[in-house]
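Q: Predict the assembly, please.
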Amino acid sequence: MEKKTKLFEITDQEISSDEVVGRLADPAIGAVIAFVGVVRGETDGREVRYLEYEAYPEMAEGTLCQIGAEIRERWKTIQQVAIVHRVGRLDVGEISVVIALSAAHRPEVFDAVHYAIDRLKEIAPIWKKEVWSGGAEWRSEA
Amino acid sequence: MKVTVKLFAALREEMGSREFEQDLAPGSTVQELLDWMLEEYPALRPYVRSLHFALNHKYVTRQTELHDGDEVAFLPPVGGG
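A: Predicted assembly structure:
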């Protein structure tokens, strides 16, 4: 069986946080932090039916890779970064994104993961459409 | 020269198309391509101010010059996560 080692990925398949964390496996690491983004059932008091994610995959994987490089530049102790984002229709409770970072020791991984999610929302060419009963809207952080 | 134009999210829905090829005069910029599109599709006007642009998968400014075979993407405000 081929080992899956892609660290930055846009996928239309279900994401498992364990599987993404597993991509960082290395005897040198002593800590892994994983941020797991999940589809919320309510926004601004409206009941969300589902979300529709769209990406520009050829560019987005490069952008995620760039975020990984920025993190390793800023926090020299971060060993490895993996970011996997799902696209397509996602129901409430499903995982939309997993960001995993590994390091030899614990300090800094928290700041680094915070940076990663902020940066992803800012520059990754990924869009989110909220669909509720009777309407839909493309949402952005801007 | 010919460029491929890619559209996403609200812009893709407004245009009813993900991708099209466009003939342009040599030396045209992203801004000139945008101006042509607005002329053809005035419905895009409300989106223009918030758009970002990518050329061959990298963010660029409106002043960037295009070349034959380029892939230009019009990116509405992003919002992954």
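The radius of gyration of chain A is 16 Å. The interface with chain B takes residues 37, 53-56, 58-60, 62, 85, 96-97, 117, 120-129, 138-142 of chain A (CB under 8 Å).
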